[in-house]
Amino acid sequence: MAPELDTTNIPYSFDNAFFLKKVKCPVIIFHGNRDTAVYYGSFVKLLKLLKATDQFITLQDESHNDFSKNEAYLILNLFKKVVQKIFTINKGLNPCIRN
């Protein structure tokens, strides 16, 4: 588990909405509802920008860095590895998945 970071004095921000609109492949967003580094409500606002193939997964009672043992995250990470292996075998079928 990574330690919590003090992000109150970070001098930059990310325009997630701008970049999310440009993504063509399916997107899965994980966000802990107890995140103190990135406000959870700002990610909820992104819901209206998601495509039908996208998912927003709330990690209950998780903070910014402690989700690596979360069951939902681990299951999806395993699924991603399986899909990557399939597309590695069948090279070039999906440009959205990268090693």
Summary of the model, kept short:
This protein is of the alpha+beta class.
Description:
With 99 residues, the protein is of the alpha+beta class. The protein has three helices and two strands, in the order H-E-H-E-H. Helix 2 links the parallel strand 1 and strand 2. It is globular and about 45 Å long. The two termini are 24 Å apart.
Strand-residue proportion: 5-15%
Mean pLDDT figure:
75
Order of helices and strands: HEHEH
Percent helix range: 25-40%
Shape: globular
Distance from N terminus to C terminus (CA atoms, Å) equals 24 Å
Total strands: the figure is: 2
Count of helical regions: 3
Write the layout of secondary structure elements.
Elements: H1 16-22, E1 28-32, H2 40-44, E2 55-59, H3 71-89
Parallel strand pairs: 1-2
Keywords summarizing the entry:
single chain, globular, alpha+beta, AB_hydrolase_fold, two-stranded parallel ribbon, 99 residues, Peptidase S9 prolyl oligopeptidase catalytic domain-containing protein
